[in-house]
Specification:
This protein has helices at residues 21-56, 68-81, 90-99, 124-129, 132-139, 188-194, 200-206, 233-241, 250-259, 266-288, 297-306, 328-335, 412-420, 451-454, and strands spanning 86-87, 118-123, 143-148, 154-160, 166-174, 178-181, 210-212, 217-222, 225-230, 294-295, 315-321, 339-346, 349-357, 360-370, 373-379, 385-392, 396-401, 404-409, 440-445, 455-457. The chain has 460 residues and is an alpha+beta fold. Strands 10, 11, 12, 13, 14, 15, 16, 19 and 20 form a nine-stranded mixed β-sheet that branches. The protein is globular. Residues 289-326 form the LicD/FKTN/FKRP nucleotidyltransferase domain.
């Protein structure tokens, strides 16, 4: 095809603008800056991942062993500041308690064989009122690393000097008359300073909240060192094994009250007060009988969901393992003004006791173990029909509920879901004990010949 003389060959057209060396320099700088930013971000991410893995998996390789002189200097600082340091290490206390007869003068048998930090306890009140104590420790050559809980209260102190660390647990006296140990938490660099001396088992124990009964102390010489120890070591060790504490979730309770606009009538408030008094009285009586119990059913739901008693529940529910049942429950409760109004079942099957005080009903449900499940029974008085409420197997933890130290299932949400289903957070006022729970099962019928024994009603 022929083109006229005015037609341009576009293949050889010059670009409208020709890049200058300055423009190429700017582009190169931008590329370099982008690469630098990517490298920096990558390094930060890798550092955080490494730090997380490092801190969550404490090393078990210990570079030092315990020096008895460190223990003596700790005790010296306590004496100078009038602070009592209590040997609080369950492993060492257990070994010494069972084998104290093998002590040999001049030989370190117990303290020097500790794996990881040797644990002592001090009270929060002493640390607060005796600020000289920590200063004195620093003067004696200790590196002092302090950990605080989420409320800014001191919770743990680690002391480094010549040997492996000494660990001070800070015990907080609570209004409900128990001692609280907070979980170990703190800035990563603080944790990094002490983590290399902590075994995996010790680390897991330190990350738990704990609650202890108040205890007395006595002075004993261990490995030639004058130490303060719990007066009844066996009782302390039992208490320590069962000391796991679950605090009530105040954030969840606040969200629940905002979502459902907590607005209680004077009648609701009166019921909650009476129910609280009834829980307190039952706690005193069951503690005296040495019978462990826990918040169950609606009372447990109120604790977990709103840190409170459910105003429309109209009763109190407690759980007890059938192995802990004692006939004295009935006589002791009635002595204290709790009238037995119903007894269902028998010790070998579906036992349930109901008491009443001041128009508030207290139900004691007895739990049976069956394989990997636990269950409590229910009986319909009119027909003799039996029901079974099945739960995944659970263990017990301490909590504080309305200034009462009580137990709840450690697997609290699994327990609640079994009893109330996945919509447990939504309030339900029309609840039928025979049909509403998702974990209820029909369990036969009591024979006519047994009904006078297994269905006892004293107040309708």
């Amino acid at each position: 095809m022929m083109f006229g003389p005015c037609t341009k060959d576009l293949r050889h057209e010059e670009p409208l603008t020709k890049p200058t060396s300055r423009m190429w320099g700017i582009r190169n700088l931008r590329r370099k800056a982008f690469v630098v930013v990517l490298v920096v971000v990558g390094l930060i991410l890798l550092d955080q991942i490494y730090l997380h893995v490092w801190l969550s998996s404490p090393s078990t390789q210990f570079q030092r062993s315990l020096h008895l002189d460190d223990v003596r200097q700790l005790l010296r600082a306590g004496q100078d500041a009038s602070v009592t340091t209590i040997l609080f290490d369950p492993v060492i206390l257990d070994a010494w308690n069972r084998n104290s007869h093998v002590e040999v003068p001049g030989v370190c048998i117990f303290l020097c064989h500790v794996v990881g930090p040797l644990t002592f306890a001090v009270t929060a009140a002493q640390l607060r009122d005796k600020p000289m104590f920590l200063s004195r420790l620093a003067q004696l050559g200790f590196t002092v690393t302090i950990f605080e809980n989420s409320e800014g209260q001191r919770s743990h102190v680690f002391l480094m000097r010549q040997g492996s660390p000494l660990h001070l647990v800070v015990l907080h006296m609570k209004p409900a008359d128990y001692l609280r140990q907070y979980a170990l938490e703190g800035p990563p660099h603080n944790v990094a300073q002490v983590k290399q001396y902590i075994t995996k088992d010790s680390w897991n124990h330190m990350k738990l909240d704990r609650a202890y009964e108040r205890f007395s102390t006595k002075d004993k010489k261990i490995d030639g060192v004058d130490l303060t120890v719990p007066s009844h070591v066996d009782s302390f060790l039992t208490d320590h094994r069962n000391s796991h504490f679950l605090p009530c979730n105040e954030s969840r309770a606040g969200y629940y009250n905002l979502k459902y606009l907590k607005n209680e009538s004077p009648e609701d408030t009166r019921f909650k007060h009476k129910a609280w008094k009834l829980i307190g009285k039952a706690k005193v009586l069951l503690d005296q009988l040495n019978i462990p119990f826990w918040l169950s059913s609606g009372t447990c739901l109120g604790f977990y969901r709103q840190c409170d008693i459910i105003a429309w529940s109209k009763d109190v529910d407690l759980g007890i393992f059938i192995e802990d049942y004692k006939p004295a429950i009935i006589t002791e409760f009635e002595k204290r003004g709790l009238r037995l109004i119903a007894k269902f079942g028998k010790e070998s099957d579906s036992l349930e006791l109901s008491f009443k005080e001041d128009e508030v009903k207290l139900d004691l449900f007895f739990f049976y173990t069956e394989g990997a499940t636990m269950w409590n029974g229910g009986t319909q008085a009119r027909t003799g029909k039996k029901y079974k409420y099945v739960f995944p197997a659970f263990t017990l933890c301490w909590t504080e509920f309305l200034e009462l130290k009580v137990r709840v299932p450690c697997q609290t949400e699994e327990y609640i879901r079994a009893n109330y289903g996945p919509s447990w957070f939504t309030p339900v006022t029309n609840w039928d004990w025979k049909t509403s729970p998702p974990n209820v099962r029909e369990n036969g019928v009591w024979p006519e010949a047994e009904r006078s024994e297994v269905i006892v009603l004293k107040d309708v």
